[in-house]
Amino acid sequence: VIYLDNAATSWPKPESVISAALTALRDEGGNPGRGGHRMAIRASRHIAGARSALAELFNIADPARIVLGYNTTWAINLALKGLLRPGDHVVTGSMEHNAIVRPLWSLERQGVAVTKAPTSPTAGLDPDEVRKAILPGTRLVVTGLASNVGGAVSPVADIGAVCRERGIPFLVDAAQGAGSIPIDVAAMGIDLLAGPGHKGLLGPQGTGFLYIAPGLELATLVEGGTGTESMRPEQPAALPERHESGTPNTPGFAGLAAGARFVLETGVGAIGGREAELVGRLHLGLAAIPGVKVFGPPAGAPRSSLLSIQVAGIAPEDVSAILDEAYDMASRAGLHCAPDAHAALGSLGEGLLRLSPGFFTTEAEIDACVAAVSAIARDAAG
Ligand SMILES: Cc1ncc(COP(=O)(O)O)c(C=O)c1O
Fold first, then answer.
1. CA angle at 27 for the pair 25 and 29, rounded to the nearest 5°
2. CA 36 – CA 30 distance, rounded (Å)
3. In 3D, which of 7, 8, 4 has the Cα closest to residue 329?
4. What's the rounded Cα separation, in Å, for the pair 357 and 17?
5. Helical H runs in the chain?
6. What are 156-186's pLDDT values in tens digits?
7. Mutate to test the pocket of ligand 1, among 10, 76, 98, 337 (most ligand atoms within 8 A of CB)
């Protein structure tokens, strides 16, 4: 299969990820943090390994401030619902994923005010637009590092500087870009970083994380057993336990630790550079096909490793189905859980076809995709 759906979840995974997850399942299946026996201690090491690799990747001084959970959506929900209260104001972008849009929509119903600052489909969220949208009651600024529809990368370090200047916490959704675009929470003024383990960090599905900066205390989404302070009825205040009740996905985090180590050893710069070559080649190839329109930043401009297209005369769902059935190629059609982004791009009706190469994609696969889309466009033109 030619897998061009890495923006949804990355595949293939490095062998080290598969073997770490298998080892955790086969040989080290104790419950981490919930027993003193050796099996439990070995399982705990996987969890600690994931936290320390993430801390190294994102320049997080204290790994205990990284809470491990299911995915980016969970992490964003914890950050938004843990921080915002009725009467607060929040600034976000106008092209965000539903992982931000939907929790904010329900918080609005509880009395939180939301401003969607205009976001450029080619250059992301402009720090000046954020500055203009800030009010005296602004409690949070939240945006994605990169658009999951067009691929535009937002200048998060500049937005972080605006937030620092105004003393407002800054939450970044790093679902697109973590592992390929350098992220330094200290240098970029990021107070809350939500990310997936299963995309650019090359870990298993069902893994994600939230970094919480010192000084920020979030209300809990889930409470229960943490393996600590068990005599007390109230949830412990200490991180990471406060937000990690119940048995974790140990095989998943064992794999995530190995995936994040793979990224550290290969280098975020090398991975991002390789993906830029691949997506650049795809962009040039597709843009040259009559009837194909490429959305998002122009060729050569910064973009995460994805692009979305429209093929004249044929619906994106049908192009995706033909790619799958006739060419054994995985792509994603539709609204990509981001109707606001499609509204900004003018593609809200049928959505678009998204193609997202990963670090392991080859030039031959990119060329095969361009040839397949070219044949589909020719047929659609009659
Ligand atoms: C920009 C963006 N935010 C959030 C998410 C949700 O990520 P997850 O599937 O890890 O919850 C995605 C997933 O596609 C995304 O692209």
1. 55
2. 10
3. 4
4. 19
5. 15-26, 38-58, 72-83, 98-109, 127-133, 156-166, 185-188, 250-266, 268-287, 316-327, 339-345, 363-380
6. 999 999 999 999 999 999 999 999 999 999 9
7. 337
Concatenated DSSP letters for 138-174?
A: EEEEEEESB-SSS-BBP-HHHHHHHHHHHT--EEEE-
Among the listed residues 167, 169, 185, 150, the one whose alpha carbon sits nearest the alpha carbon of residue 57: 185
Structure-token match 């057993």, residue found: 225
Please name the residue whose Cα sits nearest to atom 12 of ligand 1. Answer: 175
DSSP state of 93: E
The answer to whether 253 and 68 have CB atoms below 8 angstroms apart is yes
The model's confidence at residue 33, banded by pLDDT at 50, 70 and 90, is confident
Ligand 1 nearest-atom number relative to CA 75: 11
Cα 375 to ligand 1 centroid, rounded to whole Å:
31
The pLDDT confidence band at residue 24, using thresholds 50, 70 and 90, is very high
196 lines ligand 1 (CB under 6 A): yes
Structure tokens belonging to residue 189: 């003024």
Characterize the bridge pairing of strands 119-120 and 124-125. antiparallel
Distance 56 CA to ligand 1 centre (A): 22
Mean pLDDT value of segment 147-155: 97
> Which tens digit of pLDDT belongs to each residue from 80-137?
999 999 999 999 999 999 999 999 999 999 999 999 999 999 999 999 999 999 999 9
Distance CA 156, CA 179 (A): 15
- SS3 (DSSP) at 278: helix
Residue range 212-247, pLDDT digits in tens: 999 999 999 999 999 888 999 999 999 999 999 999
Report whether 334 contacts 348 (CB < 8 A). no
Burial of 184 (0-12, 13-18, 19+ CB in 10 A): middle
Supply the pLDDT for residue 374.
98
Rounded to the nearest whole angstrom, what is the distance from the C-alpha of residue 222 to the centroid of ligand 1? 21
Does residue 194 have its Cβ closer than 6 Å to ligand 1? no
Cα gap 121→124, rounded to integer Å: 6
**Does the structure show a pLDDT above 90 at 35?**
no
